[in-house]
Write a structure and sequence with these properties.
Elements (H helix, E strand, L loop, with lengths): L7 H6 L4 E8 L6 H19 L8 E8 L4 H13 L4 E3 L4 H13 L3 E3 L16 E2 L5 H14 L5 E6 L2 H16 L7 E5 L7 H8 L5 E5 L2 H13 L5 E4 L5 H8 L7 E4 L10 H10 L8 H20 L5 H9 L4 E2 L4 E2 L13 E5 L5 E2 L1
Parallel strand pairs: 1-2, 1-3, 3-4, 4-5, 6-7, 6-8, 8-9, 9-10
Antiparallel strand pairs: 10-13, 11-12, 13-14
Helix pairs in contact: 2-11, 3-4, 5-6, 8-9, 11-12
Amino acid sequence: MGSLGYGGAWAQAKAGRKIVLGQSVPLTGAADQIGLAFAGGSKLYFDSFNARKDNPGWSFELRQMDDGYVPAKAAENAKKLVSEGADVLFGFVGTGSGDAAAEVAAKESTIFFAPFAASDKLRDTAHANVFHVRPSLADEAFRIVRHCATLGQTRMAVVAEDDAMGRAGLAAIQQALAEQKLPPLVAQAFVPVNSDKVDAAVTQLMKAPPHAVIQVSLFNTTAAFIRKMRKAGYAGAFLNFSVVGIDPLFTALGKEIGGVVVSQVVPPPKKTTVPIVKEYNAAIDNSDQTPSYESLEGFIAAKAFAEAVRRAGKNWDRAGLQKAMASMTDYDVGGFRINLRAGVRDSVRAIDLVTITADGKVVR
């Protein structure tokens, strides 16, 4: 796997063999609901592709492993997947896990496709083998900060989990404030990952106090923090990056979710007027899955990969596939455009800010 020439399943695929994708996600642990949904949506697309009667002569095998949201385990899984014949690394979930997989992919001269919540440093041109389906943390941060500023909520604070994702999200918010010439954060606090130990952060932020709190955390921590801030008398806004997991956050908060804002990077998963969402729902009808933003994102990522294989042509190798991916800077995946080669900031990205009503209805 050390070269970008022909070999393995790449050569075999021309004879109608499988293309093997290696994926490590949290199927257990702190981010299991996000990992299960994203992995499920990915598999849903590849399974439906393989079942097509007009199959173009190749098929996909998605090998999925559990890393429990532990970067070291993700790195171990990445090495194992590549050593056992995976042609690409695909759809790892988590900032730390994405960094770990990118390191393995670089050493093995392997493509790393569609990481979920990857750090923005992986968008640098130095990482020419890494391709992103979702917008950057910087894109989401810019949208969130601009929304707050438009509403006059210029006193912003950040609470972030003390891990790679939290630190990357905080940096993205600080960058967005500077870009938009807004005042610096009035407070910032780190909290343990996937924990309700948020009292110190609540005390710290209540001293500020902010107009809006931007959270860079998974759903359990987010829910605990929102509850305790409100109990302390905070009546301001809460805004979240898409990585929070909107469905598990609703499960965790219930009716207390009213007014919480969440950034979203794919269309609503039940908006079937969007062609890709219609295709996704048709596939999900024949499965035991339920629609979700994360599952739809996995489905879109898988379809984008399949399109890159198609564009690479009949006689492609890894270098040819990488070239095809690099050219997909405005790919219409079905009423929704993605840019696989975006830099850290991509102003044309479609990012929605949504809220959820107490009865679970998503409002854009």
